[in-house]
Specification:
It is a single chain. Helices cover 72% and strands 0% of the residues. By secondary structure, it is mainly α. The chain has one domain. Helix 1 packs parallel to helix 4.
Length: 177
């Protein structure tokens, strides 16, 4: 990792943390809770372009964002692990971008949903009653599919256009293809 990668990591960490802090101020129920449409998670698919600096950046940004809201040490530790796992999945599957985005949403749903039920009651789903942990995992997975797969894939597609990629490269950024 060189200075450029470290700078990119810091930029993505600050953007992620800033988006979380802004969302907590504007739409708190959607930043934390049983239905967690965390807008900052749309950055995770960009690991297909920016690789490890982004994976580290969204993890550090999550750590900062979770420490800002403070549900407890479990959230501050496991949230960044979920983000790192998600971004790593996207990076490793980057040649199949839509599959990568779906795979990136799943660790967040499973890891975060696996502990978030300790802090919040899960939302009610129609149909058969699910155990608390399963309902929360389902809710967070669906939320992550929206932010990571729908919004994040759209952002990744826009930034993957040849003109934009050329511009990023001309400014000295290493972009994976």
């Amino acid at each position: 990792m060189d200075v450029r990668d470290l700078s990119l990591t810091a930029i993505f960490a600050s953007v992620y943390a800033s988006l979380v802090a802004l969302q907590v101020q504007l739409l708190p129920p959607l930043a934390y809770g049983p239905i967690q449409l965390r807008v900052a998670d749309c950055l995770i698919p960009l690991a297909a372009l920016f690789g490890w600096p982004l994976a580290l950046g969204v993890s550090v940004g999550c750590l900062i964002g979770n420490a800002y809201y403070w549900l407890g040490p479990v959230d501050v530790i496991l949230g960044p692990i979920a983000n790192f796992t998600a971004a790593t999945a996207v990076f490793l599957l980057r040649r199949h971008r839509l599959v990568a985005c779906v795979a990136g949403a799943l660790p967040i749903g499973l890891i975060v949903g696996g502990y978030l039920w300790l802090f919040f009651p899960p939302p009610d789903f129609p149909g058969p009653s699910l155990p608390l942990w399963a309902a929360m995992m389902l809710s967070i997975t669906v939320s992550s599919l929206i932010t990571v797969t729908v919004i994040g894939y759209a952002l990744l597609s826009i930034l993957s256009r040849p003109g934009i990629l050329g511009s990023l490269r001309s400014h000295g950024l290493k972009v994976a293809t």
